[in-house]
Specification:
The protein is α/β, with parallel strands linked by helices. The chain has helices spanning 25-28, 36-39, 41-49, 88-97, 130-148, 175-189, 216-229, 260-277, and strands spanning 15-23, 31-32, 51-60, 65-66, 72-74, 84-85, 103-109, 152-161, 200-204, 233-236. The two termini are 30 Å apart.
């Protein structure tokens, strides 16, 4: 795993803010872009053009679909394929509308993966999961790239959308401890680039679908408890917010993933917390 050992020189005009996006498929982005043309046509055009002032570098599916190590405007088509999107669009919209500049998103996500195995961190298991290692490497490589571009990057927060796979395994009772250790280890590995106030952690619940995510209550309570105990953590209850998975695609509903308008809302909810607590 890459270890950051030095920084670029901080100047008055080269500081940029970094938001990290991690998780499984609802972070990777399985929502279908074309449905937005009917549900929110005016916004769909804006989302297609994207946001020049909020750029993203992404790696989905551990290299299956990426931005090729480039920072590009955040827009539709940066999900699991060029036809899909994740919460990055709503996040960028909120940051853009708030007039914030010099913000970069780093997204590393992989569908169908668990915190108890793929994402598990060194404190929970001596040999960390391949996605924990991959995420840290991706983030550090991206930060080094920003430094080569003349910037001084500071990590403001991590957004985490994950837990579905853990609700169906045999490790759901450990999700609280695994999350706590995951956050601690990420902050330790990325501490050279953290904001002076520390790195925030924004978590969101999985859908309350008894027949799909059988132990969602345990997973979501673990998320809530961690957020309550950590002064730099915040919690989004996607179920109280009314996010849906039961309308798209028409005729062959994908109950596992958020509908397009709900995915935009998820991004906006992350974005509002970021603006309120972390992004200057």
């Amino acid at each position: 795993m890459i270890k950051a050992i030095s920084r670029s020189v901080k100047k008055d005009n080269n500081v940029v803010q970094v938001i990290i996006l991690l998780g499984q498929s609802n972070m990777e982005g399985i929502s279908i872009s074309s449905y937005l043309t009917k549900k929110m046509p005016q916004k769909a055009e804006e989302f297609t053009v994207g946001y020049q002032d909020v750029k993203i570098s992404f790696d989905n599916g551990a290299g299956n679909y990426t931005s090729n190590n480039k920072f590009i405007p955040t827009k539709l088509g940066q999900g699991c394929s060029p036809n899909h999107f994740g919460p990055e669009v709503g996040i960028a919209e909120i940051i853009h509308n708030a007039g914030k500049t010099d913000v970069f998103l780093l997204k590393y996500a992989y569908g169908g993966t668990s915190l108890s195995y793929d994402w598990i961190s060194p404190t929970s298991r001596k040999k960390p999961g391949h996605l924990f290692v991959g995420a840290v490497n991706f983030v550090l490589e991206s930060l080094i790239q920003l430094e080569k571009m003349g910037y001084y990057p500071e990590i403001k927060a991590i957004c985490w959308m994950q837990g579905e796979d853990d609700s169906n395994g045999n490790q759901y009772d450990n999700y609280y401890n695994y999350t706590k250790n995951f956050v601690k280890d990420l902050r330790e590995d990325l501490k050279l680039y953290m904001d002076l106030d520390g790195i925030g952690f924004l978590d969101a619940t999985i859908a309350a679908l008894d027949h799909v995510w059988t132990e969602h209550v345990i997973i979501n309570n673990a998320k809530r408890q961690n957020a309550e105990e950590d002064p730099l953590s915040y919690f989004i209850d996607t179920n109280d917010e009314g996010l849906k998975t039961n309308h798209e695609p028409v005729g062959a509903v994908d109950i596992y993933h958020y509908d397009s308008d709900s995915m935009i809302k998820l991004g906006r909810l992350f974005g509002m917390l970021l603006i309120e607590h972390f992004v200057d």
